[in-house]
Amino acid sequence: MRDWFAARAKRLQISGIRKMFEMAGPDSINLGLGELDFEPSELAMKALADAVHNGYNHYGPTKGIPELRKALAERLTRYRPDVEMDNIIVTAGGTQGLLVSAMTLFDHGDEVLTPDPGFVIYQPHVIMCGATPLRYSLRFENNFQPNPDEIQELITPRTKAIIVNSPNNPTSGILEPDTIKALRDIAVENELVIISDEVYDEIIFEGEHHSLLNPDYDNVVYINSFSKTFALTGWRLGYMASSKYMVNQLSKLQYYNIACPPTPLQKAIFDVMNAPTNSVQERVDILRKRRDVIVKRLNDIDGFSCLKPKGAFYAFPTFDHDISSEDFAMELVKSGLICAPGSAFGKGGEGHLRFSFANSLEMIEKGMDVLEKVAATIPRKN
Predict the structure, then answer these.
(1) 29: which strand partners?
(2) Cys-Cys crosslink for 354: which of 84, 103, 150, 340, Cβ 3.0 to 4.6 Å?
(3) Residues of CATH 3.40.640.10 domain(s) within the chain?
(4) Cβ proximity of 96 and 228 under 8 Å
């Protein structure tokens, strides 16, 4: 029989998170999904309906409609004062922006530094482009901050880029200013492109978000999304920002990938961004309460230890039970609780479980009850 499938497809593995969902029963408690349990605001839904009725139903510019790109540029001046509309590309979600970045920048023989543990699509995107991912570690004992010395040792003449994510999925760690400076210095010294995934930048519980998009270095591709900020995961809309010479190349791949981002959704997002008020802070306050509950519950379970997330909406505790993270997650699924095994995010995630607190307090409490009962049945390591 003819081998129909490209090598890039055969090299990819099914996500470890997907396995949990396929096993789960219909009444399972879902603390595994990276999606807020809020519906879009009434303002957002009305804005979308208005956009459709007002004729925003046709092809638009490859880079996105001008009014939205201008509004996004104004938003990003908080990080880099010289950002203009021509620095912006609107994408079909943050994921598509990451893929376009990978396709534009990575080639056969290149090496790309990726966080471990890290979001599940980073390494597959590198592999799909024929490049090689090099894992740099994020460790619990270091508050999930990357080690600049380790990163410097990984770099070879073939290293093209470094992918960073702050606030981070799955760890909820936030890059500190000193770490950001160190990463930028490494990129400058070694002529690396920084791809900075900052889709959780509005979900901050303590302190403030520090962006890699900065006047000190031009070779940065900034990725963001409206999915987390406005609870619009199904709308699949995001954006990129970079230097104009980088955007010119990115936009070529953008055209051949999707032609243009969805026109009515862009207009609706523009209207939401320009409304006098939105519900982002209200949602963050709700998530903060959920975070405090789940972290306390986790730290009260024998063998578990959990840092308090400063951003995003994931708890990523360690455990000292004599079981792999995948098998632990499987046992929890059998008892009606969905979470993600740490190993789904890379070898550095082993010994962790990821729980999303983007669900209600009631579901969080019920989920932690299940975890406590199951954990008590699993032997601890000596």
Answers:
(1) 337
(2) 340
(3) 42-273
(4) no
Q: How far apart are CA 107 and CA 6, in angstroms?
A: 16
Determine whether 88 is exposed, middle or buried from the number of CB atoms within 10 Å of its CB (0-12, 13-18, 19+).
buried
Taking the alpha carbons at both ends of the chain, their separation in whole angstroms is 51
Return the bridge partners of 220, or none.
Answer: 194
The answer to whether the beta carbons of residues 167 and 209 sit under 8 Å apart is yes
Helix (H, G, I), strand (E, B) or coil at 221: strand
* CATH code for the structural domain at 7-40+279-375: 3.90.1150.10
The contacts of residue 149 (CB under 8 Å, 6+ apart) are none
Encoded amino acid at 297, one letter: R
Among residues 113, 67, 106, 100, the alpha carbon closest in space to that of 222 is found at 100
- The DSSP H or E segment spanning 115 is strand 111-116
Helical pair 325-334 and 361-375, crossing angle rounded to 10 deg: 110
Q: Where in the chain is the domain with CATH 3.90.1150.10?
A: 7-40+279-375
In the predicted structure, residue 277 carries a pLDDT above the cut 90: no
Q: For residue 162, give both structure tokens.
A: 């470094």
Predicted TM-score of the model (pTM): 0.93
The CATH architecture one would assign to domain 42-273 is 3-Layer(aba) Sandwich (3.40)
Compute the residue count for the chain: 382
User: In this structure, what token pair is assigned to residue 123?
Assistant: 């390494």
At 304-330, the pLDDT tens digits run 999 999 999 999 999 999 999 999 999
C-alpha span between 357 and 287 (Å, rounded) = 7
